Protein: TfuA-like core domain-containing protein
Organism: Azospirillum baldaniorum
Amino acid sequence: MQTPDGLYVFLGPTLPRADAARYLDATYLPPVAQGDVIRLCERKPRAIGIVDGYFGNIPSVWHKEILHAIHQGVAVFGASSMGALRAAELHPFGMIGVGAVFEAFRDGRLEDDDEVAVIHGPAELGYPSLSEAMVNIRRTLADAAQEGVVPAATARRLEAIAKALPYRERGFGRVFRLAAAEGLPEEELADLRNWLPTGRCDQKREDALDLLQTMRRWAAGGGRAPEARFHFEHTALWDRALRDGGRCQTGNPLD
């Protein structure tokens, strides 16, 4: 069923739906996966927001299905997580990127997908995050150094420790234990630990809220989609994916 304004947002662990609904009246969908945007285009949306998305065991959203939506006259916004990654790659073609994470990937200051990856719980529990995103750790440590909570050198070392961890194991508790084992000053670690409850920054959440407010302003202002700045190539594989509802029978990515 289409919302009155035709707004749809793919959302998961980055932001609870109840919080999101206070900023934007939209249809909220689970994290985006391969084929979801193709199927959503059948509902004739005005705009699509992508925050969270699957990868790894569940195939990720194709670049080409986002280009398909843009070519169909749909405004596609991205931020925070999978949305930031795809927007950084597709903004030259009309996808609208929002927020600091998108800007960092667009400008080449971040490159690795694991910067935004987290492990999370099931949908029935609201996708609770069970690890900390690297982009959040980076921003929090930068703020701590700027505020004089820890020296800049200590913040850089903690950042390196976090980056070396698999994304599934990232969290401040694990970082503190490894830092202590390396012999980082106990007093500095204690100061940071005491500051974290009020000082921790959730950059992904901030960017998601920015996306919702951007979409709200866009809709309130008449909401015209950017012009598609590319030729959309209809290949046999793409046409088969359309017929199959977004499923690629060969298992190969569409690009």
Residues 203-220 form the longest helix (18 residues). DSSP finds eleven helices and five strands in the chain. The mean pLDDT is 91. The first strand starts at residue 7 and ends at 10.
